[in-house]
Amino acid sequence: MSSAATFGKVAVLLGGKSAEREVSLKSGGMILSALQGRGVDARAFDPAEHGLDAFMKENFARVFIALHGRFGEDGTVQGVLEWLGIPYTGSGVLASALAMNKLRTKRLWLAEALPTPPYEVLTKETQLRAVAKKLGLPLMVKPVNEGSSIGMSKVLVAAALEEAYALAVNYDPVVIAEKFVDGTELTVGILGEQVLPIIKLETPRDFYDYDAKYIADDTRYLIPCGLSEKKEKEVQTLCMKAFRTLGCEGWGRVDLMLNRRGRPYLLEMNTVPGMTDHSLVPMAARAAGLSYPDLCLRILELAHVG
Ligand SMILES: Nc1ncnc2c1ncn2[C@@H]1O[C@H](COP(=O)(O)OP(=O)(O)O)[C@@H](O)[C@H]1O
Ligand SMILES: [Mg+2]
Prior knowledge:
Layout: E1 9-13, H1 21-37, E2 41-45, H2 52-57, E3 62-65, H3 76-84, H4 93-100, H5 102-111, E4 119-122, H6 128-135, E5 139-143, E6 153-155, H7 161-169, E7 175-179, E8 183-191, E9 194-195, E10 199-202, H8 210-214, E11 220-222, H9 229-245, E12 251-259, E13 264-270, H10 280-287, H11 292-301
Parallel strand pairs: 1-2, 1-3
Antiparallel strand pairs: 4-7, 5-6, 5-7, 8-9, 8-10, 8-12, 10-11, 12-13
Bound molecules: adenosine-5'-diphosphate (ADP) and magnesium ion.
């Protein structure tokens, strides 16, 4: 690994103005102290508190993007850093923007024959009952542009679709209904060329919702995930393809379901996954023998421009 000094002055971008601000503050705070602990000249920078002029005055040599959601994970901040010519962590403009949009992501995966649950786009005019009939129940209704399970619901009966749509559309004008995959939830971290060990998630809730992610402690994380070695490799290969199909770089995390027959269905790609002490990528890295500070240094080392 590169020595800390070669990175120069590093900005850890954290907070921001997305719905996931609080999580980002936690992720970013931990990254900041891990990097500083390893001798990196890292400073926190919250774009919701300081403008671009303040950022430019700092003359940062490199940026660790720890912003989740819009205005950070979605290609906008990446575009500014491209313009300024400052190396930054993770995916570039296009891949970040694509991965932020669950609908565009699914379309690309399907174009490459990668499995993702069948879906329909919902609008004000959509005959919701017809959608329920076509896809079958239960359905997951999601805004295409949020994260952290915000605005999302599991719909068991067609009569509940309207309310689910009304909730989702508060967060994004584009909403999809996706076939619910009954089975096992998996998540897979990617670090450079390496696919990290798979984590299996078990929640007593309907799905891995916001509370399960950040508040409650009733989710079980299984690592090793209990799949056969062959199956684990197969899923890991699929996740690397999913990552590359979107043009992702540096690091990321793929969420997917395995149905009862063991068939994988890709749900979404996260280009700036959570990095709190509860988070999944740090957990998977640890299982691969990489400590939290080592993980942060590796992500920072993979940073580049364009
Ligand atoms: N089609 C689906 N079938 C079963 N569970 C789903 C499906 N889509 C989402 N979920 C559940 O909802 C959670 C959040 O969905 P996801 O698409 O990963 O969005 P995000 O994490 O960005 O909010 C998943 O972790 C999973 O528990
Ligand atoms: Mg997810």
